[in-house]
Amino acid sequence: QVQLVESGGGLVQAGGSLRLSCAASGRSFSSNAMGWFRQAPGKEREFVSGISWSGGSTYYADSVKGRFTISRDKAKNTVFLQMNSLKPEDTAVYYCAADRRRYYSGKDYKADALYEYWGQGTQVTVSS
Fold first, then answer.
1. Band (105; pLDDT cuts 50, 70, 90)
2. Torsion (CA) 27, 31, 32, 34 in degrees, nearest 10
3. Degrees, nearest 5: CA angle 117-63-49
4. CB 25 within 8 A of CB 117
5. What percent of the chain lies above the pLDDT cut of 70?
């Protein structure tokens, strides 16, 4: 059974940092790109960041560029999202997802439909 399990969410003051982890099990995703999405109350789920299957390319939503960093540890089948300088508008449930495409080398990471597996989400709350 394939599972993606996020952890590391919590309550933090504005300006603080959190590091989210997404541990995959059931199969290796070393040949798949991975992504992070978030959904705030009353809003649609949105793309936050993506990392290529090799780890050599990363992509960010404009709203988090320069503050968030995505990385992956293929040996541990785990993806991370380091979030710095957090703002109240970053408050959301954060989801990791595994791209259905293998060895994809393009720049298209934003659409939900590109991802085959999703985690259950982890809550991030940033207080002002």
1. confident
2. 90
3. 25
4. no
5. 100
